[in-house]
């Protein structure tokens, strides 16, 4: 009886030690990434600082648009800001020129706000911008607050994402996106036809 107890004790120690040994493998499935990577810069983890040199020269084809696909992660240049974009539907009766002009105009509004008042918190945590039948709405989320600078970087990332969509032959789209400042989600946002929100 005493011999079997010592054998069990020895096996218990061996089993505990055996489980503590790391598994070394070249199989990428076993070595999963610790975070999502930017679709526009696959070598960069979303939320890390994105330098222009990390950008891919040509974005991958995203495939046909389907509502149940995982969101695209698009990182803003020169910042830790990124967006997680979900395609909702095509925006009919809008050209890419209208979309480009709209995003350029809201970018100008944000730059002007930063120039006159500094990179401060967005008053009330909500911004709604409407022009030419389009609407961008961004609201604080996840107990964090968005600033003009983070929103500006997010709008720039959205514009870059839309340009990529245009270059792939897609029509303008209604999207929802989450805005992140580094690891923190700071806003929920939509880009849509104005008629959806009256």
The residue fraction in helices comes out at 25-40%
State which percent range the strand residues make up. 25-35%
Overall 3D geometry? Answer: globular
Query: What separation lies between the terminal Cα atoms?
Result: 82 Å
Helical stretch count?
A: 3
Order of helices and strands: HEEEEHEEHEE
Work out the count of structural domains.
Answer: 1
Derived structural class: alpha+beta
Strand order of the largest sheet: 3-4-7-8-6-5
- Please mark out the parts with pLDDT under 50 across 5 or more consecutive residues, or reply none: 14-33
Largest sheet: 6 strands, antiparallel
Beta strands, count: 8
- Radius of gyration (CA) equals 23 Å
Average residue-wise pLDDT: 80
Written account of the structure:
- The chain is an alpha+beta fold.
- It has one domain (about 35-195).
- Helix content is about 30%, strand content about 25%.
- It contains three helices and eight strands, in the order αββββαββαββ.
- The protein has helices at about 1-20, 95-115, 150-165, and strands spanning about 35-40, 40-45, 70-75, 80-90, 125-130, 135-140, 175-180, 185-195.
- A six-stranded antiparallel beta sheet has the order 3-4-7-8-6-5, covered by helices on one side.
- Strand 5 and strand 6 (about 135-140) form a beta hairpin.
- The protein starts with a helix and ends in a 5-residue tail after the last strand.
- Residues about 15-35 have low confidence and may be disordered.
């Amino acid at each position: 009886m005493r011999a079997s107890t010592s054998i069990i004790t020895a096996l218990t120690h061996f089993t505990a030690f055996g489980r503590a040994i790391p598994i070394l493998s070249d199989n990428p499935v076993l070595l999963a990434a610790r975070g999502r990577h930017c679709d526009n810069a696959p070598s960069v983890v979303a939320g890390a600082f994105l330098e222009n040199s990390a950008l891919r020269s040509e974005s991958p084809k995203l495939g046909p648009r389907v509502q149940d696909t995982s969101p695209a992660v698009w990182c803003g240049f020169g910042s830790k800001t990124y967006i997680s974009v979900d395609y909702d539907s095509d925006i009919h009766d809008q050209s890419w020129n209208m979309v480009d002009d709209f995003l350029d105009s809201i970018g100008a509004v944000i730059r002007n706000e930063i120039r006159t008042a500094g990179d401060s918190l967005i008053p009330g945590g909500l911004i709604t911008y409407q022009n030419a039948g389009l609407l961008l709405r961004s609201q604080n989320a996840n107990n964090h607050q968005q600033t003009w600078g983070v929103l500006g970087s997010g709008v720039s990332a959205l514009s870059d994402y839309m340009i990529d969509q245009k270059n792939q032959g897609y029509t303008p789209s209604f999207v929802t996106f989450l805005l992140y400042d580094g690891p923190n989600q700071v806003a929920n946002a939509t880009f849509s036809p104005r008629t959806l929100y009256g």
